[in-house]
Amino acid sequence: QQLDLHSVIHHSVPSCRSGQRQKNMVSGSAECIFKGSIKVDKLAQKTLSSQICCSLLLTKKSKVKVMPSLQIQADDVQCSHGAALTQLDPEQVFYMASRGLDGRDARRLMLIGFPEDVLQGLKETSPTGYKRVMDKLAVMAENAVDP
């Protein structure tokens, strides 16, 4: 499986604000490709924009490729982009196990918690939509955890 995501944030007027935070969980031999771009035109002075892609690799065969870019023509802006790549931390699993959870439940809870910060807006604006996403995430997390 391959997921190819493209995002373009284009600011063309002054004092724009944007923030994009993306979370990916990649398992099996799947590959996730993220191409993210922030474009700021010359007239878009005082723009604040950020874009970050955080990915969690769940298997040794899963892959992530991130290609962020900034295209800035204005000179009075604050723009940033970045990427973070991680795996489930065995020390965190051990810590949770020392608090009474078995390793499988600890990993499952960590998977469910990984995208929580990006889902907060949905929780506030659409509690029903948030519940639907969390239910699907719980099923995915259960299937993604080794027995």
From TrEMBL:
Q: Where is the SUF system FeS cluster assembly SufBD core domain?
A: 1-114
- Provide the protein name: SUF system FeS cluster assembly SufBD core domain-containing protein
The GO biological-process annotations, alphabetized, read as: iron-sulfur cluster assembly
PANTHER family assigned to the protein according to its UniProt record, in alphabetical order: PROTEIN ABCI7, CHLOROPLASTIC (PTHR43575)
